[in-house]
Amino acid sequence: xxxxxxxxxxxxxxxxxxxxxxxxxxxxxxxxxxxxxxxxxxxxxxxxxxxxxxxxxxxxxxxxxxxxxxxxxxxxxxxxxxxxxxxxxxxxxxxxxxxxxxxxxxxxxxxxxxxxxxxxxxxxxxxxxxxxxxxxxxxxxxxxxxxxxxxxxxxxxxxxxxxxxxxxxxxxxxxxxxxxxxxxxxxxxxxxxxxx
Length: 196
What we know:
By secondary structure, the protein is mainly α. It has helices at 3-24, 30-41, 49-56, 60-72, 94-102, 108-115, 119-138, 177-180, 190-195, and strands spanning 76-80, 88-92, 154-155, 166-168, 173-175. A hairpin with a 4-residue loop joins strand 4 and strand 5. Helix 2 (30-41) crosses helix 5. The model has no long low-confidence stretch (mean pLDDT 88).
């Protein structure tokens, strides 16, 4: 195994350990913490079990188990989509919102480790890891959701002066500024689209 691959595997191992420690401080498992983050940071119409499973890299059955545990703890509730009654959306309860707020330091140890790098080292690492993430995403090993800006489908201020001025050409939806700032699992970076 080449040294770079080994380094990435070691980073993955350390990241899991950090996530476990940090999740324990708020009384959650790492996957439960990721679930709360997904629900809070994702567009309301996209908080489905299917998309959560893709984000977690888990099966539908194991994802339902995570949701069931969070529902039992009173942190998450299920809601039937008004657009498609076959789709269940996930919402945070008041207690879930409070738990989410306690996750404000999620990733803090990694931030501390990155702070030891020079600006040049950080820029190089960001470029390199960005390329690895893009490759893993293309191969289907990773689902990356991001806010609308920078997506090939996003039309900023398409309806200027309206309560929902932005438009997504993929989903054929108008959205407010607040909604445009939430993650979308269908985000397609402009740069990736141009390369394709």
